[in-house]
Amino acid sequence: MISVPDYLLQEFDGLVNLEKKNRSEFIREAMKYYIAERRRHVLQEQMKKGYQEMAKINLAIAQESFPGESEAFGSCNGKVTE
To answer: pTM for the whole thing?
Structure first.
């Protein structure tokens, strides 16, 4: 047994009638929807964290290789203009 405020129950019953379902069906669907959305949100946060962590690693790699690339580009650029 759950307790729900009257205003929420009235709105809920309105949606149940609109969807032509019974309360149990509607609650099952709402629970499935909530769980799916929650999983999606958790996955999105994990991906965000992973991308942020990889950004730090990628920046470090780029900074390590940048001096060599600049040197190589400079020597190539000098040969092209000669």
So the answer is: 0.59
